[in-house]
Amino acid sequence: MVAPVVIAIDGPSGSGKSSVSRAVATHFGFGYLDTGAMYRAVTLWCLRQGIDLTDAGAVVAAAEDLPLGLGADPQDPTVELDGDDIAEAIRTSEVSAEVSKVATNLGVRAVLQEQQRDLIAIIADDFGGVVAEGRDITTVVAPDADVRILLTASEEARLARRSTQLHGTADAATVAATHDEVVRRDRDDSTVSQFTVAADGVVLLDTSALDFDGSVAAVIGIVEHAEERE
User: Fold this and answer.
1) The whole model's pTM is what?
2) Which of 22, 40, 83, 103 meets the CB 3.0–4.6 Å disulfide criterion with 74?
3) Is 215 helix (H, G, I), strand (E, B) or coil?
4) Is 193 helix (H, G, I), strand (E, B) or coil?
C-alpha cells in the first residue's frame, strides 16, 4: 500500500499559495487544507461572540471549542462555523484587519497547530494525499512532509495580486488600500512564524515573474522531482 503524500506550502500574503495549492491538489487528486482559514474563523467567531481579541485566554478557549467545519475538496473548500457558510465572511476587511491578533496568540497557535496535524493525517488518508498551506506548515505543523515549499514573491507582485483579488484591479489607489493588510499582517505574523526565509530542506520558489499557470506548473514540477528521487 502506497503511503499518503503530504505537501506543505508556506508563504506571505499575496504569494499565491492558496490558489496555487488548490490547483496542485486538484492536479494530483489530493485533498486541501487552508490553515489560514482556521485563524480567520477563530477571529470571526470571537468578533461575533463579543470576545475581546486582546484577552489571550478567552481567545484560546474560543479556539479550543470552535464549531468549525472544513471541506477538503480543493475545488470547493468549504468553511462552516456552527453550521453557517463563512467562506466569504472570513475574507472581509473586518476580519483581515483583526486576524493577526489571533494568529500571534501563541496559545491559539498551539491549539490550531495540533488540530492541523490531525486534519492533515485524516485528509491524506481520505484522498491519498494532501496539500496543506499556511505560514508554518513546512517548519512546525508538518516538518516531515514529503514535499516542503516556500512560495515567495516581491512586495510589488504580492500587492498587485492581492489588490486584484480583492478589488478586481491593481491601480495605484487599490494597491495603496491593500498595502496595510498585506505588509502589516506579514510583519505582525513574522514575530511568531518564519515564512520569509526557507528552512533547511524547504524548496524556495519565487513566483514574482510567474503567472498563475506558471506558478502551478513550477510547484507540480517540484513535487514530481521529489517523487522521482524517492
Assistant:
1) 0.89
2) 22
3) helix
4) coil
Cα separation values, 120 from 34, 81, 125, 142, Å: 10, 19, 8, 8
CB 202 within 8 A of CB 138: yes
Q: How far apart are CA 129 and CA 140, in angstroms?
A: 19
36-45, 75-84, 184-193: lowest mean pLDDT where?
Answer: 184-193
Please tell me the predicted confidence (pLDDT) of residue 167.
Answer: 63
Q: Report the 10 Å Cβ neighbour count for 177.
A: 13
Beta strands in 98-230 (DSSP E): 129-134, 147-152, 203-206
| Largest interatomic CA distance in the chain | 54
Say yes or no to pLDDT of 163 above 90. Answer: no
90 three-state secondary structure: helix
Dist. CA 221–CA 219, nearest whole Å: 5
* CA angle in degrees (0–180, nearest 5) for 217-222-223: 95
